[in-house]
Amino acid sequence: MKVIPISSQTFIMKVISLQCEIGSVKGQIMAWMSRAGSWAVWSGATGAVLHQPGAHRGFLLPHQQRCGFRKALKKVEPKKEAEQAELVQKKDMAPQVEPPTPHQPDRSFGRLVKPLVFTVGFTGCSFGGAAIWQYESLKSRVQSYFDEVRTDWLDKLRPQKHGDFRKEINQWWNSLSEGQKYVTGIIATNVLVFCCWRVPSLQRSMLKYFTSNPASKTLCWPMLLSTFSHYSLFHMAANMYVLWSFSSSIVNIMGKEQFLAMYLSAGVISSFVSYVCKTATGRLGPSLGASGAIMTVLAAVCTKMPEAKLAIIFLPMYTFTAGNALKVIIAMDTAGLIMGWRFFDHAAHLGGALFGIWYVLYGHELIWKNREPLVKMWHNLRTRGPGSGGNGSL
């Protein structure tokens, strides 16, 4: 192979000529690519599908990216660039979010002022309403005395029906004592509230209004409504059995009007004592049940009749006096309150028991026997009405 010598000038001229040819070919290629890219953009803008003979459909997208159209689509105005930079800066400078801390309920005793006012006001209204109810009952009984005698005489002449279900219910109702009749209404109310707990759509309302909790936003009315609320069937059955057992004794001692006033007031007072103890110890939580009011009934009967014999339903062979039973119950609730037992609301039990003892020893003299001014005022209002004759007599 021969090597033909080429002068440096000739070599430079050939190199320049070759570069020009390469440049012209490169310009033609770029022009063709530009036209293909503009066709792709036009076809994408009009929604048409571009077809080229012998070309694959997926060619246009990577070719468009190489020709710089991707950069044109992502072009951001200076204002948007400044906004994005500011957002990035704020995101970088924002402190890390800490996990939310659990809500701490308010333990301030100032929240108990409203429940205290409600307790005093409701207790006064209960005994005042009971005194007026007793007045109206006596008045109605005197006025309907002869009507009752005539009704009894007609019942004797009327033929008796045998096997009638309504008659059997009436006989059962008439066989109950006066205390059992009035307690039946309380038991029916507790059963109704117990059934409401089983309705899913009422769960939120039941928790709000039928449980007493010093940390709740609703403080006053749950103090009363929780007295008729039970979530457990065993809890309700045990409370209602004790109430039924002591109903005859307590109504014979106090009368139906005074008993009902004491029972309702005991429910509110025991709830308020529970509020105070929960706020003082910080053991906040909901409570429900008639145990506080029933403890008042039990304590009143045991204080009035300390020598009465009592027995446990499951162990009837073992008997003990009512006074000793009351001492044991108070001792157990006191120990539970001191040691922080959470199974029962021992503060409510103690509040109810102490209120029952106080009412039998002092409250009856201070409250019920001083109802005469209220009854006279009500009597004067009643006798001023039309048809009263204005004589001021019963």
Structure, described:
This protein is 68% helix and 3% strand. With 394 residues, the chain is mostly helical. It has a two-stranded antiparallel ribbon with strand order 1-2. α5 (113-143) runs antiparallel to α12 and α12 crosses α13.
Weakly predicted, low-confidence segments: 1-6, 34-76, 87-103
State the share of residues found in helices, binned by percent: 55-70%
What letter string, H or E per element, gives the SSE order? Answer: HHHHHHHHHHHHHEEHHH
Count helical runs.
16
**Count of β-strands:** 2
- The strands making up the biggest β-sheet line up spatially as 1-2
Structural class: mainly alpha
Shape: globular
Percent in strands = under 5%
Radius of gyration: 45 Å
In short:
The chain is an all-alpha fold and 394 residues long. It is built from 16 helices and two strands.
Would you spell out the secondary-structure blueprint of this structure?
Layout: H1 8-46, H2 60-66, H3 69-73, H4 78-93, H5 113-143, H6 145-157, H7 165-175, H8 178-196, H9 203-209, H10 221-225, H11 233-254, H12 256-281, H13 291-304, E1 309-312, E2 315-321, H14 322-339, H15 346-366, H16 372-383
Antiparallel strand pairs: 1-2
Keywords for this entry:
two-stranded antiparallel ribbon, 3% strand, 16 helices, 2 strands, mainly alpha, 394 residues
